[in-house]
Amino acid sequence: MDTSLIARSLELVAERGDPVPHVYARLFAQHPQMEKLFVRDTSGGVRGNMLTEALSAMLEFAGGDRYGGNLMRAEIVNHENLGVPREVFAVFYTTIRDTFAELLGAAWTNDIDAAWRDLLVRIDAALAR
Ligand code: HEM
Fold first, then answer.
1. What's the number of domains the chain is made of?
2. Is 37 a pocket residue for ligand 1 (Cβ < 6 Å)?
3. 49-105, pLDDT tens digit by residue?
4. Is residue 56 part of a domain?
5. Mind spelling out the 3-state secondary structure of the chain?
6. Where in the sequence is the domain holding 84, given as residue range(s)?
7. Is residue 99 in some structural domain?
8. Is the CB of 88 under 6 A from ligand 1?
9. Pocket test for ligand 1, best of 24, 36, 56, 79 (most atoms within 8 A of CB)
10. How far, in Å, from the CA of 50 to the mean position of ligand 1?
């Protein structure tokens, strides 16, 4: 998998502004029961941090996985305690991919799409471990 294509897609998304509201709008449209779990996040800061942390774990995972996969697996347990079922936890990376593809439109190229598809398969396998 081409990690530089993943990184490039993140740069292109960042150039288009803050993706946080878009990612969570998609997540809550598909999993409405998750929105109320963010009740303590009155400023939106937790949502933003969560996306940042999820992306940095993902990039580390993609670029060698010294700790990214372990961090994600540890967060599964933390999130189960928050009320996030593990199968919902796992959809977050797909939600990110779908949101970014939508935000980039024509700039979401076939090779970027292939790199993400490959990465999501690997993340699913790592989370199931
Ligand atoms: C659909 C899946 C997910 C849902 C519904 C979800 C939900 C939540 C909620 C409700 C909180 C706030 C907890 C609180 O009030 O203290 C939170 C925090 C957090 N989540 Fe998730 N989460 C998901 C996926 C992920 C993933 C994949 C990661 C990646 C590692 C992650 C990392 C974090 C981190 C680091 C925080 C703490 C942020 C902070 O307090 O600043 N989450 N999550």
1. 1
2. yes
3. 999 999 999 999 999 999 999 999 999 999 999 999 999 999 999 999 999 999 999
4. no
5. CCHHHHHHHHHHHHHCCCCHHHHHHHHHHHCHHHHHHHCCCCCCHHHHHHHHHHHHHHHHHHCCCCCHHHHHHHHHHHHHHHCCCHHHHHHHHHHHHHHHHHHHHHHCCHHHHHHHHHHHHHHHHHHHC
6. 3-30+61-128
7. yes
8. yes
9. 79
10. 5
